[in-house]
Amino acid sequence: MSGPELTEPLAVCSRALNRICLCGLATLRENGRTFSRRYNMNMPNPFVHVELNTTDLDQAKAFYGKLFDWTLEDTPMSDGTYTLINVGQGTGGGMMKHPVPGAPSMWLAYVAVDDIHASTEKVKALGGKVILEVQEIPNVGWFSVIMDPTGAPLALFKQKAM
To answer: DSSP class of residue 17?
Structure first.
């Protein structure tokens, strides 16, 4: 017996305990029956950016540029190049040379917060660690990098008012 089959494109937020959390318009086919439903979930603190910190930026750009239909745009930074990832629809991101020498390549997700300073401080109160205190990205906003109590890294982000 097979599980549910998704027959329309959609964003799958999570799948656990035989439950699927769907965003957008979805058609789900299970046991010969078809279910269509529009899901409109306004998620607080959404993921807004994903960033590859890589040991080899040129190799990563070549790989992901051929694997996906992403538009990659290099932007100069004071200490190198930041490659913006435009995915069309959905959460975009960027790539850069890993800022920690010797560290392995990794993807880092960014979550939007209303108050970057308060959210960063709250991490400590909840048993997490602040890896990088609040930093400004000129003309863009502010971010910090945290680690949850299980050791998973995550970035917090506050966009500058437009």
So the answer is: T
Q: Looking at this protein, which amino acid is placed at residue 20?
A: I
pLDDT digits (tens, 9 = 90+) for 85-132: 998 887 889 999 998 899 999 999 999 999 999 999 999 999 999 999
* In contact, 87 and 68? CB cutoff 8 Å: yes
Q: Residue 142 half-sphere exposure, CB side, CA atoms within 13 Å?
A: 15
pTM over 0.85: no
Please tell me the distance from the alpha carbon of residue 143 to that of residue 91, in angstroms, as a whole number.
17
Residue 59 phi/psi, 5° resolution? -65, -40
Extents of the domains making up the chain: 5-39, 47-159
Structurally, at CATH architecture level, domain 47-159 sits in Roll (3.10)
**3-class state of residue 120 by DSSP:** helix
| H or E element, residue 138 | none
